[in-house]
Amino acid sequence: MRHYTCLIDGEDVPAEGGRFAMCCPSDGKPFATVARGGKPEIDLAVAAARRALEHGAYGEMTATERGRVLSRMAEAVRDRHSALTELEAMDCGKPTRQAATDITCLARYLEFYSGAADKVHGPQIPFLKGWLVTGIREPHGVTAHIIPWNYPAQIFGRSVGAAIAMGNACVLKPAEDAGLSCLEVARMALDCGLPPGALNVVTGMGEEAGAALAAHPDIDFISFTGSPEVGTLIQKAAAERTIGCTLELGGKSAQLVFADADFDAALPIIANAIIQNAGQTCSAGSRVLIERSVFAAVTAELAERFRALRVGPHDRDLDLGPLINRQQEARIERFVELASDLELLAEGSCIPDLPVGGCYTKPRLYGPVPPDHPLAQEEVFGPILAAIPFECEAEAIAIANGTAYGLVAGVWTRDGARQLRVARRLEAGQVFVNGYGAGGGIELPFGGVKRSGHGREKGFEALYEFSQLKTIAINHG
Ligand code: NAI
Ligand code: MG
Asked: Ligand 1 centroid to 229 CA: how many Å?
């Protein structure tokens, strides 16, 4: 069994709070331990990050040099692709193919931000006669990264990759349920030439290490992905010191299927968008809105797909793996209970020889679901798809926008004008037309509106999020 410590200033640091076990969601068995970091380790990590910026080699690096380090990290991740895949699959309970995609995405984030690091240009602004005005992009300083258990490798890549590209020194707090890939890659980064202190990782509980990090007086920015409840606490903590934060808090993302859509193209993508990572995905396509004239036909075909889905442990590499923990299982059971007044159109099946100790749930398709039903309003964070009929374009938009969330949306229609008209009216940070990529690509800015949060990660946009513009006005006469 591997025992992980915190990584602070390039050193292995055990925590005063001891350690706790990491269990594989497939069978509930412990396979590693991590340090139970808290305030003492957060204090050390923030101090190390500050030193790296102000007195260490890191603060002296040019953007090009930081880009080269990120490029070497991307290569190192590719070299260890299969080992990292196995770790991510076991840690998160993901089917192996899904974990492999996550590790590929991690390498791609590092590669994208390696190339982007020295391509961020400031403006030159026309001003009064005799003046030259320019703007330079500066890092925030010490950035805190509090990330969830559902996509640790990917979220590490998008968040830490962009922050380092801009020259911030990072303190990362992975989730208590999964995040070992972050510890591995942070250690690999040292061999790739990232100076000690530029990236520190403190594992621990949310209420201990997470809260201590968010409240630390010497951090300059917080990047948070997780629940709306904790997101609110993070924003309050940031407000105490008037620092900025990005919050990515999940959603109730809708795909709109019009009667003229290419169903053969749409259906596999609609099914996949809700079963990926057993539905534990912030951008899961958890609602499908279908034009009434084709509702019966489309749901019948979707039902067939759901019935073919199979659930099993991560190493069986089926359609769905286990849920992360008992808390998620209880959450999904509550929604199944709430759905007892609805028609269950189809469900998938679990393999017969499931390991005891894992939390498994079948993917389920319900419909027609009234738009005000909890299943159509609340984030389930599990493999449950709500099918909702609509009469016309205006009603489809109203239903799609009629939740508290706004992360991603999909529009399926062959009508070009409608594609654009609907995409513009949907309240979401990302809209896909005739496609749906849960979370979008590496290159695509991603984040929410409304209760899904604010700020953008991914793509070039993240580089602006992890920096601030300084305007310099020079009177040269
Ligand atoms: P959570 O929001 O509690 O955890 C996310 C991260 O925040 C973890 O690293 C955790 O340790 C940390 N954290 C927790 N409490 C904290 C605090 N008081 N101060 C600072 N950091 C803290 O999410 P949890 O409990 O794992 O899942 C609960 C629900 O949240 C899920 O059922 C799902 O609905 C939602 N969720 C959404 C995610 C997304 O991708 N948007 C990811 C994970 C969960
Ligand atoms: Mg929590």
From this structure: 8
